[in-house]
Amino acid sequence: MKTQTFLQHLAQNSEKELQFAYATGKYVPNQFHITEIKNVLIESVDCGGNPDTYRQTVVQLWDGNGPDQPNSMTAKKAFDIFQIVERKKPIAQDAEIYFEYGNDTLRTSTYAVQHISLDGKIVVDLAADAPVCKPSLVAEDACCEPASGCC
Questions:
Q1: Model pTM score
Q2: 32, 41, 100, 125: least CB-packed within 10 angstroms?
Q3: What is the pLDDT of residue 137?
Q4: How far apart are CA 13 and CA 89, in angstroms?
Q5: 6, 70, 2: which is closest to 34 by C-alpha?
Q6: Cβ neighbours of residue 129 under 8 Å, at least 6 residues apart?
Q7: Residue 40 near residue 110 (C-beta atoms within 8 A)
Q8: Inter-residue contact 96 to 112 (CB < 8 Å)
Q9: Quick check: 61 and 98 in contact, CB under 8 A?
């Protein structure tokens, strides 16, 4: 999901609570904080020798120190945090948005947005992207086997 699309969901549903599901039935606790919003520039070369440059927005979520809250942050509050960041470090609106989260029993990972539900609350379903051989995305005969000799 593009950063701009995520922000539109927040702006259009400002009074709704915002929740993040990192697995089926498992949610980031209501007392979470957005601790950092990162503008990330990726400069890479894939296993086929193809260079690429792209941007990501990475939003870091933290459980917080307090007791569990009955309600989570509103979309308006989250949107306001993005606006503070935007004034200091402009956010690439066309960048894919990711969320970084971990807790005492879950290693910190970066998650893509799998789906957003807008029924009652804004529920962002997160999913960890599996590694992929990028040349195979553009050509069937790409050299993606470990013994292929392309790397």
A1: 0.90
A2: 41
A3: 80
A4: 24
A5: 6
A6: 111, 112
A7: no
A8: yes
A9: no
